[in-house]
Amino acid sequence: MEANTQSEGPDKLDRIVEARMKLKRRFEEKMAQTPSMVDEKPRGSGPPNRHGMPTVPVGQTVTTKWPVLDLGYQPSIPLDKWQLHIDGEVNHPVRLKWEDLMALPQVEDTSDFHCVTTWSRLNVPWVGVRFMDLAALVDPKGSATHIMCYGYDGYSTNVSLEEALKPDVLLVHTADGEPLTREHGGPLRMITPQLYAWKGSKWIKRIEFLTKNQLGFWEERGYSNTAYPWRNDRYS
């Protein structure tokens, strides 16, 4: 099924908002109980961040630079060729073109970026689409518990729905006021501010809803399934 966001206009937006609120109600309790929200003994330093954890997680060093980490391949995807497939355990799978993505509600947000290789970049301004809105668009089945994200570079990573549906999880096309560069995953990447950054796929091309947890690229190689920075949860 191909998305047709432009032709449906306000009616589609109303349905997305309604579906978003339904998802929020369904996962609100689980989201509120995740470690980055309620951990009584988070490990880190600095004043509380936006969700109550120490600003700098344990083992992290703050940097103003943005190091480049990838699998050795940085795909170049022209916007007129770019597509995002969202499928799996959903009622309305979609194939989004770039213009479809840009017709969805666009969000400006500021959050922190924590890399498992021990550096953190704070207060990064982003522009993109909330994952929750994309989930609302496809209407996950009641059996869905996790997602697997796939990149154009062959990368994959798994995220539980209670983490993915948090409001600061975005698919971003803009960072620091500029279009997301190819080296950092442009034209579109996912960000997961309450998890280590490997949970956010660069050059994202597909999101598959799953009925159970499955291992992604780094998870198969010994990285943590859960990836909570304030528990130093780097490796399994």
From TrEMBL:
<dbReference type="Pfam" id="PF00174">
    <property type="entry name" value="Oxidored_molyb"/>
</dbReference>
<feature type="domain" description="Oxidoreductase molybdopterin-binding">
    <location>
        <begin position="76"/>
        <end position="218"/>
    </location>
</feature>
<dbReference type="InterPro" id="IPR000572">
    <property type="entry name" value="OxRdtase_Mopterin-bd_dom"/>
</dbReference>
<feature type="region of interest" description="Disordered">
    <location>
        <begin position="27"/>
        <end position="55"/>
    </location>
</feature>
<dbReference type="InterPro" id="IPR036374">
    <property type="entry name" value="OxRdtase_Mopterin-bd_sf"/>
</dbReference>
<protein>
    <submittedName>
        <fullName>Sulfite oxidase-like oxidoreductase</fullName>
    </submittedName>
</protein>
